[in-house]
Amino acid sequence: MFIRNCWYVVAWDYEIPDDGLFARTVLNEPLLLFRKADGTVVALEDRCCHRLAPLSMGRKEGDCVRCGYHGLKFDGQGHCVEIPGLASVPARARVRSYPVVTRNRWVFVWMGAPERADPALLPDNFSCDHPDWQHVPGYLHYDTSYLLICDNLLDFSHLSYVHAQTLGGSDEIAHARPTIEPIPRGIKVSRRVHDVPSPAYHAPMRTSDGNVDRWFVYDFVLPGTLLMDSGARPVEDAPDDLSRALRFHSCQTLTPETEHSTHYFFQEAHRTGMGDGTLARTMHEGLLVAFEEDRRMITAQARMIARSPGVSMLPLAMDAALVRFRRIVDEAIAAERD
After folding, report:
1. Tens digits of residue pLDDT in 180-203
2. Domain span at 115
3. pTM higher than the cut 0.70
């Protein structure tokens, strides 16, 4: 079961061509996306109502798409406007259309009741498109449930072990107890780690050779979006002195493709003016190494779960945030069912 009345990221804006078709599956539903002449994005069911062929195998014609099988032509609202060889179009000849919003380079699709599509529920992914922040956009595909990846993002104690040579660098991260606060449609998680070695990920931008104080403060909101302020400050600097601090803002979101596969959109941005102009690319390459460490572990975990469906997990204190978030997900699904 998935939350339906929610905005899901379906693509980075650069993925959808100016003159062409783009297909992606979300919540088991095949979607077709394309741009109209004014640049706005259209999202339709990627399944012709005639013989159920993928519309993405057809062609774009102006602000419409023509099925590549028998030539039915659909407008941006999903209405069939032309059927070759027929003088009139049956009223039932249509495909589903989805509300779409592009905000800060993320393209969101509303998968539930169209009349409930509320832009106020969009996450604040400001650093994806802000002159004060620089990043390289990222995407990974997972062959696991999105909830297992949510679990991973909600418990940063794994940085000490999964990412010992990349993002972690200290066992103290696992020992630092986070604070968890409720926020609308999610939770805020704050973890502060004092006087630890700087991780390998920070090497290209390090401002001090000594130990650092690190912080990870993030909102985690439905359906599975992380918006994080993080950084590191030389331990000898005063708590309010950020002159030598490394500061980052990260936006990461998970979109279920199916029950057992997930689209993962991510970026970590640095402040504009930091580095020599190649820093965003260097950071992105470092993230890819670290996130592959996550994917390898979570994929192995998913296989083990599938092998042993009757074996339950042992809840521990470190699971507090992920347990709370799963409860929020379950409550949202139950509310829609009611």
Report:
1. 999 999 999 999 999 999 999 999
2. 7-121
3. yes
